Amino acid sequence: MEKEIGKVSMFFGKIGVAAVRISGSLSVGDKIHIKGHTTDFEQKVSSMQLEGKDLKKASKGEHVGIKVSDAVRPNDVVYLVK
User: Fold this and answer.
1) Dihedral sign of CA atoms 42, 45, 49, 55 in order
2) What does each C-alpha distance from 64 to 1, 2, 32, 37, 52 come to in angstroms?
3) N or C terminus: which one in the chain shows less Cβ crowding within 10 Å?
């Protein structure tokens, strides 16, 4: 079962980080599925940052950086995998 919890707004390729606008809640250790036109992969959230500071949990409305294992694109949807 998957629940939409955010959308990618930017991708920083050199450091492998996706900027995600959170619309639900997300914690380090959660499993996510990122899906878009050419994107489709699952991974565990290993690290998350907000304004350069490490974050354990992100809440609705926050714009966080998430380390990703593959390239993502703006408007790719982030789902929480239960």
Assistant:
1) positive
2) 23, 20, 14, 22, 9
3) N
* pTM (whole model) above 0.85: yes
Q: Are 56 and 26 in contact (CB under 8 A)?
A: no
- pLDDT, averaged per 10 consecutive residues of the chain (82 residues), comes to 97 97 97 98 97 96 97 98 93
The pLDDT assigned to 64 comes to 98
Residue 34 and residue 8 in contact, taking contact as beta carbons nearer than 8 Å: yes
Annotation: CATH topology of 2-81: Elongation Factor Tu (Ef-tu); domain 3 (2.40.30)
Task: Please report, for the chain, the start and end positions of each structural domain, with discontinuous segments joined by +.
Answer: 2-81
